[in-house]
Write a structure and sequence with these properties.
Blueprint lengths: L1 H6 L2 E5 L6 H16 L3 E5 L29 E5 L18 E6 L10 E4 L6 H11 L6 H14 L10 H11 L5 H9 L4 H12 L2 E3 L4 E6 L1 H7 L21 E7 L3 E8 L5 H6 L4 E2 L3 E7 L3 H17 L1
Parallel strand pairs: 1-2, 1-3, 3-4, 4-5, 7-8
Antiparallel strand pairs: 6-7, 8-9, 9-11, 10-11
Length: about 325
């Protein structure tokens, strides 16, 4: 992989639609590293970064273009399990050489070269290793992006995906001298007023099923419209459903046009990725998502509960 990257002068980077901290952090860190090597790099995205990630270096380049320049020699797709979710136009996609760099176990291996490591905590962890393999010295700017990606996907090192390797790579990132406490504060202890209101609306719908084994919350389209918040900015709301000690599954359903966007978090028993895969989604064992077609909210809940019960008794 490093040989392919070193041989190319003009590269493009892309990640999945509705990018999160890992997607944005790993993409921008790699862009900085490749430019340190003298490469011409285009960041592709159909949308800007979420507001809480605007502090990252190069964040202003996100959403400027989703069209791959015709002279691109190499496309690196980061943190995206299937090509349909890549946030870019498809012009030239089939012609360019593609490196697929990801840590999702459900990855479709759509690249010409696939580097998929489900044991990695995050794509940012993998990019940290790649930057070292490329011979680039980590800068504070790269470290900010990488640290953001890792803490986002590990829940600030709380999730089981955190490994000894994760902490070793994080130590290298901290050695740059970055202000990690500032990043922690922005990501986990700063929430603007309208997002606090959105959290309140979700918590008002909190209910439990299966003797508390499943927590469910929902947000209507009107909740996002009234507060002028895009539905991708629902943040960590779904995690609150796992706080009851008896809860193993937490689900947040967000109303869309003719379907529901579903976020799932689990503790130990249910495989979140396997549950979401039933409905065409995917993700990680403890964190996953999908789009679920249903005429009513109750119908959507019923489908999910039926599959969870089936998985429990299998």
């Amino acid at each position: 992989m490093t040989e392919k990257i070193h041989a190319a002068d003009r590269l493009a980077l892309v990640t999945h639609a509705s990018p999160d901290g890992d997607a944005v952090g790993s993409t921008l860190a790699l862009a900085l590293a490749l430019r340190a090597l003298g490469k011409t790099v285009t960041v592709l995205s159909k949308e800007p970064v979420p507001e809480n990630l605007m502090f990252l270096p190069l964040a202003e380049e996100y959403g400027l273009t989703s069209v791959m320049p015709p002279e691109t020699e190499l496309l690196l797709a980061l943190d995206c399990g299937n090509k349909e979710r890549l946030s870019m136009e498809r012009d030239g996609f089939d012609m360019v050489f593609k490196i697929n760099l990801d840590h999702h176990v459900s990855n479709d291996l759509y690249g010409d070269l696939n580097h998929v490591d489900p044991t990695a905590s995050s794509t940012a962890e993998m990019v940290t290793e790649l930057i070292e393999d490329l011979g680039v010295t980590l800068s504070v700017a790269m470290a900010e992006c990488l640290y953001t990606g890792i803490v986002s996907d590990t829940g600030s090192f709380r999730y089981p995906s955190t490994t000894a390797a994760t902490l070793r790579w994080t130590a290298k990132i901290l050695e740059t001298g970055l202000d990690f406490s500032k990043i922690q504060r922005i990501l986990f202890a700063t929430r603007d007023f309208k997002r606090i209101k959105l959290l309140g609306r979700a918590l008002m719908t909190l209910e439990r099923s299966s003797d508390g084994f499943v927590s469910m919350m929902n947000l209507a389209a009107a909740d996002f419209n009234t507060l002028s918040i895009p539905d991708r900015d629902s943040g960590e709301i779904v995690n609150y459903g796992l706080e009851p000690p008896e809860a193993d599954v937490s689900i947040l359903l967000k109303e869309a046009e003719g379907f529901y966007r579903v976020s799932v978090r689990t503790k130990a028993v249910i495989d979140a990725a396997a549950l979401c895969a039933i409905f065409g989604g995917g993700g990680h064992v403890r964190a996953a998502g999908c789009n679920l077609k249903a005429d009513t909210l109750e119908g959507a809940k019923k489908q999910l509960l039926q599959e969870i019960e089936r998985m429990r008794t299998a």
